[in-house]
Amino acid sequence: MNAIKISGNYPSNKVKIYDAEYLNYEDSTLLPGFLIPDDNDEFSIHESEGHFGFFNSSGTQFHVLVKARNGSGLINGWAVVTVDVE
After folding, report:
1. How far apart are CA 86 and CA 79, in angstroms?
2. Which end of the chain is more exposed for a tag (fewer CB within 10 A), N or C?
3. pLDDT score at 80
C-alpha cells in the first residue's frame, strides 16, 4: 500500500506517491487537464488542480476531485480523476 499526497503547493496538478511504511518518495503523476473547445472548432487543454483526494475501500485507487484552473472559461469546471495505486 502507498501513501498519496497532492503535490506540495496546494492546489496542484501533480499527485505524489510515497511508500506507506517509511514514507519514501516513489513517483508522481500529473492529473489530466480539461479539453476546452474554442470558437474555431479547435481545442486547448487547461491544467487541472487537485482539491480533495480519497482512496477506494481496497486501497487500490486514489480518487481526486479536480477543478479547471482560473481562465479556462468553464462554468462548471469540476471532475473526478482516478489514479491506480499498486
Report:
1. 23
2. C
3. 95
How much is the pLDDT for 17? 84
Per-domain residue ranges for the chain?
2-84
Q: CA-to-CA distance for 58 and 56, rounded, in angstroms?
A: 6
What are the residues whose beta carbons fall under 8 Å from the beta carbon of 15, sequence distance 6 or more?
4, 5, 6, 7, 28, 29, 30, 31, 50, 53, 62, 64, 83
Residue whose C-alpha cell is 503523476: 29
Most confident of 18-27, 54-63, 69-78: 54-63
Say if CB 82 and CB 62 are below 8 A apart: yes
For the chain, the straight-line distance linking the first and the last C-alpha, in angstroms and rounded, comes to: 7
The amino acid at 51 = H
SS3 3: strand
Contact 34, 49 (CB under 8 A): no
